[in-house]
Write a structure and sequence with these properties.
This protein has about 290 residues and is of the alpha/beta class. About 25% of the residues lie in helices and about 30% in strands. Helix 5 links the parallel strand 9 and strand 10. It binds S-adenosylmethionine.
Length: about 290
């Protein structure tokens, strides 16, 4: 079975025979579906589901981090509404609609906060650059005049981050990537000059889960980050716990953050209250 893209949408082939068609018009967030048909002799065997799923997938309908929107005409036979409902379509104002918004994640929460809080930051630090998602976010946040320092202890993380920034077209003079522990942060920046320092602890996604941050280096790194921040600067930290990494680092960081003096720092611990205890825990600190 093969789905081929055509100028007007997609065709479903079983060996050499075209047995289904989905016509659509692409829009930036998804597509306007015009028709979905399967040849009568092949109906009720899952081919319609296969073709519709493929049309959704190829237009971003299953991307976790992207908002998407699809519409389709109401089926003449209302009995087919259940079929469309299986793929998230519901009746809205005389048409079918499928709207998906990405779930709020810990990473999204801290990035949204930084975007709202910082205006044209000049120096941002990604203290755990991993695969570079946060480093890229910071490069876009700082803009042409700013600079981003990215740190990681794993050479493959630095390489992965560099590749990501290059692919995104970020000019090399806009960032510095160093393969070093974040506890040594003050070897690279002067105290009191960073607008933001981000920590996303845990392990490098897609790599050896045996390499992860621990309290022994995390606490000195937080100490260094507080010194690096300018007044009004923001530190964010996403904490993890679970079978592999335990909860020692998370507990130690929480104890550390909760003991910081109120007259110098505002500290928020933003728990996903109706999720598991092991849900990522975003923490936000503002230096006064
Ligand atoms: C969850 S990942 C970071 C994800 C990353 N921010 C991204 O957007 O892809 C955690 C990273 O922290 C790094 N790490 C662990 N201990 C570290 C340390 N002492 N100093 C710097 N990086 C460390 C790991 O190598 C790993 O790449």
């Amino acid at each position: 079975m093969k789905v081929m893209e055509t100028p007007g949408g997609y065709e479903l082939y079983k060996e050499k025979d075209c047995i289904g068609r989905c016509t659509l018009r692409k829009i930036p967030q998804g597509a306007v579906l015009e028709e979905l048909t399967i040849s009568p002799e092949w109906r009720r065997r899952g081919y319609g589901s296969y073709l519709l799923k493929e049309a959704l997938r190829r237009n971003g309908g299953y991307e976790k981090n992207r908002e998407s929107f699809f519409t389709a005409p109401l089926p003449a036979d209302r009995g087919e509404l259940a079929f469309w409902a299986k793929f998230g379509f519901s009746e809205q104002g005389g048409r079918l609609e499928r709207r998906r918004r990405p779930d709020l994640t810990a990473v999204q929460l801290v990035q949204d906060f930084l975007r709202c809080r910082l205006c044209g930051p000049k120096l941002c630090i990604d203290a755990t650059c991993g695969n570079g998602g946060d480093t890229l976010f910071l490069c876009n946040l700082t803009g042409p005049g700013g600079h981003v320092l990215g740190m990681d202890i794993q050479p493959e993380a630095i390489a992965s981050t560099r590749a990501r920034l290059e692919k995104a077209g970020i000019q090399p003079e806009r960032y510095t990537l160093v393969c070093d522990g974040h506890q040594n942060l003050l070897d690279y920046v002067r105290p009191g000059c960073a607008d933001a320092v981000l920590f996303n602890f845990g392990w490098l996604p897609g790599a050896d889960h045996g390499v992860f941050s621990t309290a022994a280096t995390t606490l000195p790194a937080l100490e260094a980050a507080l010194e690096a921040l300018r007044p009004g600067g923001v530190l964010t930290a996403i904490l993890y716990s679970g079978k592999t990494i335990g909860s020692e680092e998370k507990q130690a960081v929480l104890e550390y953050l909760r003991a910081l003096p109120l007259e110098k720092y505002t500290v928020l611990v933003c728990e996903f209250a109706n999720w598991a205890d092991t849900a990522p825990l975003p923490c936000i600190l503002i230096k006064r």
